[in-house]
Fold these 2 entries.
Entry 1:
Amino acid sequence: MNKHDAGGFVGDRPRSTDLDNPLARKLEHFARLADDDRLQLAAALSPARTIAARADIREEGDDPRSVNVILDGWACRYRQLPNGQRQIVSLLLPGDPCDPQVFHQRRVHHAIGALTPVSLAQIRGSAMKELMAHSSALEEAFFRERLSATAIQYEWTVSLGRRSAIERLAHLFCELHARLDAVGLADGASCAMLLTQTDMANALGQTSVHINRTLKELRDMELITLRLRRLTIHDHAGLQALAMFEPTYVMDDEVGSSAQPR
Amino acid sequence: MNKHDAGGFVGDRPRSTDLDNPLARKLEHFARLADDDRLQLAAALSPARTIAARADIREEGDDPRSVNVILDGWACRYRQLPNGQRQIVSLLLPGDPCDPQVFHQRRVHHAIGALTPVSLAQIRGSAMKELMAHSSALEEAFFRERLSATAIQYEWTVSLGRRSAIERLAHLFCELHARLDAVGLADGASCAMLLTQTDMANALGQTSVHINRTLKELRDMELITLRLRRLTIHDHAGLQALAMFEPTYVMDDEVGSSAQPR
DNA sequence: CGTAAGATTGATTTCGGTCAACTTCAGTGG
DNA sequence: CCACTGAAGTTGACCGAAATCAATCTTACG
């Protein structure tokens, strides 16, 4: 599973940067990649480093175009208001780039924090440019990945603005399941759910007390169960209808995702 | 509710694509442009077309990388939920690109609508690439423009999630004033305010009735006045403090904006 | 100058927040 | 192996900000 002369110089290649990383799996949804594309991509990923749960992810390098990619674990982009309130602005799952560009603005307006232990790899800006220049498939894939992230961000605005508590939570679960499914991390109707109720509250602009009650309501409606950090969706169609969730915006791909019942 | 398109082709005037367009003014904040950069930029802008107030802005071409730039008027990105509720996801002001890429996703998940009559110019994808290739200043400027738009989007999430009604409205006013100021459209402490109270409600996830009361409260606190589609900020520091507004995320530039008291 | 969109105001309701107590659970060390 | 600890989750009583419903009033403009 190892190859050199991948157009580069990279000598030693640790395990984490192998061909089957979550970023590659995700990009497959956005463009049909050639074997060589996957090779180049894997070669561009720096060795993984690990961040402890609840620690902030900080930039080290100085290259504003470089991209940190999550290989394992969950993280979030968040903002802490002067009055102490916290709002999670986006959730970052395996395969997601977590645009460290933000570290290059004058003042950091939102931080990136690990919600669980996180393993990260970096693609340098120069390597990124080369990837895009060499492969139009990769260029297309990265371009559409950005569109997808943006669409997800817009949909969060819609949730916070116009969805009720139960709709919001339902929508979050639909989104997370779809995103995890896209990188092969959903197991049929179930997937990991690594957020605490307080995290959910910080993401959905509510209190953990009310999340708890809403969760109970979703359980009582027999739409989901949530046990041992694992979410199971019993009635996918029902949950999506309640959430007014339209699955296509997450991936909007050619192939269609694997575990989308109904 | 939406009228049909304004047919386009209204009095094409190369005038609008002159050197002093709002996009150029905005980009100046992000990188120091040479005369030649401004020239190239102006040349890349297609003749302006006009969209009627309350009409949707639709894509015509087929080039996913092309960018529509607002030259005059206000628009918004919005989403209409199946239950009829409307949420404005972002506001688009003169100088803002309104990423028509969205029209190239399978299903359009959010539309772009004119809030006032809008005049638009387009930069083709190929022209865009050339601009970036020829001038690293323009490349830098467009790159940072994207960062800024993203930061604004994140801040909306924070507003909807964690700010109270009056804080939200105050924050919106601070943001709009800063953005208009950056393209030379603020006049000291005052600027145009082309949103109806219903628009504000749709942007801030509230009802127009409550916007009205909140507006009154802001007036009573002598922070602002709003008359004849014009906003005047009487106590900039007070408004910013109330909104927990941190001006730098909007532009975060070298030069600093012109009308930022204190 | 008539009309419709927008703005204003009051009365009432409701969803979600606040406060507070209590339980469960995972991990740690004696 | 159990006792202790702190974080996470659960539940109840009460409160309050914003929604809803409804009735004007004002303004822009054809």
Entry 2:
Amino acid sequence: MGRVLRPTAKALPGHARAHNRSMVLQHLFHSGPTSRADLARSTSLTRVTVSDLVAALMAEGLVEELGARAEGKVGKPASLVGMRTQEFHVVAVDLADDAWMRGAVMTLTGDVVARRSVALDGRVGDAAVIALEDLCRDLLAAADRPVIGVGIGSPGVIDSLGTVVEAPNRDWYDVPLAADLSAALDVPVHVANDANTAALGEFTLGGAGGSGLMVLTVGQGVGAGIVVDGALVQGHRHAAGELGHVTVVDDGVDGPAPLCACGRRGCLETVLAVPALRRRLAGLDPAAADVELAAVGRVLGVALAPVVSALNLSELRFSGPRDLLDGPLLRTAQATVQQRTMPVVGADLRLGMASLGEDVALCGAAVLVLSGQLGIT
Amino acid sequence: MGRVLRPTAKALPGHARAHNRSMVLQHLFHSGPTSRADLARSTSLTRVTVSDLVAALMAEGLVEELGARAEGKVGKPASLVGMRTQEFHVVAVDLADDAWMRGAVMTLTGDVVARRSVALDGRVGDAAVIALEDLCRDLLAAADRPVIGVGIGSPGVIDSLGTVVEAPNRDWYDVPLAADLSAALDVPVHVANDANTAALGEFTLGGAGGSGLMVLTVGQGVGAGIVVDGALVQGHRHAAGELGHVTVVDDGVDGPAPLCACGRRGCLETVLAVPALRRRLAGLDPAAADVELAAVGRVLGVALAPVVSALNLSELRFSGPRDLLDGPLLRTAQATVQQRTMPVVGADLRLGMASLGEDVALCGAAVLVLSGQLGIT
DNA sequence: ATAAGTAAGGAAGGTCTACTAACAAACGTG
DNA sequence: CACGTTTGTTAGTAGACCTTCCTTACTTAT
């Protein structure tokens, strides 16, 4: 039949156990300290099973007993258990920028403990990998708690195993980054596209945990990460979210559409990327600048309306320079999307800046580890 | 934290068993008769476990022994087991048409055994439900094999439990169709949006089993069903795929954009729906008609390009009248999408008519049952 | 023709996991 | 102070899969 069968995961005997373990951790992570009995109710497991799982998690040090709950209700007072989110660290690296590799040591809640940055100084290929490895070692040394793993958000197309299929700006082609770094550092390493990590971060830590989220990252280029029905969209060739090179400007009366680095004309990047925006606004007074930003917002809205409709998104968040995005651009984009979609789709849509600010991609890299190692999303 | 926790399914003790059972059935369904040892290799379960599962499936009558394999290899010859796809029936109903309810009795491979249709004669609301129930009874009586379940593809917004949230054309609002019919007919009933069932049918039976598929249904209106990473996209309010009312035509020099039934202007339905297309072509000679169809194809391509890019789709299939769609319209749409997306995204895209033809939605309704009852996707 | 190697399928026994049932502890309430 | 309520634990049970070992049946090499 020529049909591509997806690699359906087999159900090992311990599979159910791992799933239930993740559910317990997930609840503790998102809802804070909880009693075993409450966990049992939330997960619809029995109290016995939950006690067993909690005991195992305590043995691992991931969870701790926190004493009796203060509130006075009838019956035996519950003793709370909580996740030790501050007693473990995660190393997160954001490679989105072309000039700097930015990294951080974070707690499991995404609080930054230490930062390190390294200038790329034009290094690409293997040299860039070596610089990245050094940065990771540096960060691992800076952590003073056990490190759960390393999460990396990188530009380019990256498959689900953390192999960089292609990242032209770093001259990486088919580089098994996750596997190599994991072997070199002896720590679990997870790698994903930077826009995808941004979406993941916003979804898990930024309060966008609804059902349809897209995060648009605006920097040197434009990228997008999409979370639908609770899962990151990968796409046919792991290239989902590559919105930067969709044509959005047609040749018109003003002459031909602007030329893009990719060789075609009128790509979204030629109007929305930061360099393009800065060029466009250079020398304009504020009022004229606002008009230009609104024009970009409208173009963006026209392109996003079909996507918002097709996926029935509930959240659309932006990451990038506030001074450019968070004003007429976003307002016009939102208005345009609403004008161009069904009321039920457009009215529900919430559109705004990423609540995690500059650190979205970094937080997302941390969430990548949480998700990969502990099953928390 | 205000975060909406998805209803994470708990892992029952029998959960793994059910999963493995589905995997075995899935392989037998898609790959045909297979030996137990081959099944074990494909599922990465042990031969013992597979034998056990196969024995259970044989006891249920879903699977049968087919004797030794002809091919001569070393070692003990394998005895093949196969799924008894012709010994069970599924009832499928397509409610997409405003005038007719079309139903069929099908085998598990989607072959039609019997057809029944009922004119709606303007019936809506409860009367339409009663007519549907009668049609189902009729079809159940026409089946001469055990019936696994009933699958229904209906217009409107439908949640994952098979409740019609809203279907204005039928005057259905919050009708628990699946639950009610299941109780009335004493058979499992599954209901989904007709465009979604079309996508499901094309995905499972139409050879579009890649990783990103969108099916566009063009009839009275325009709808879309999307399968990404192997799962149907539901969307925030179960309204994913509602592409018919995205604005695609702007007011221009030719005057204002055409008015849509929804009250706004320039919706996709005002150019792509069948009535609109017929009106547009009325009285034109073939050459002029082709120009018009190409113009519609271009408008469609412009709207689809961002969606194709965002999801990195690999298949884009159309269901509707061949004479209108399968010509300049599709050719131009494909060319437009390719012009307006990155080469890696657009070049990989395969675009064409649904391979299941008229029966896409019907086959999809059958797949809905296969998926819901047997875990086959 | 006979021995050796290979593969399929089944039987026995072990382990893991989560469930049910029953119970002790600790607290409000009448 | 007795009682009901809720929590968390102990003990026993059932399900599901695994590993190991065996028989069967065929191809291939000597």
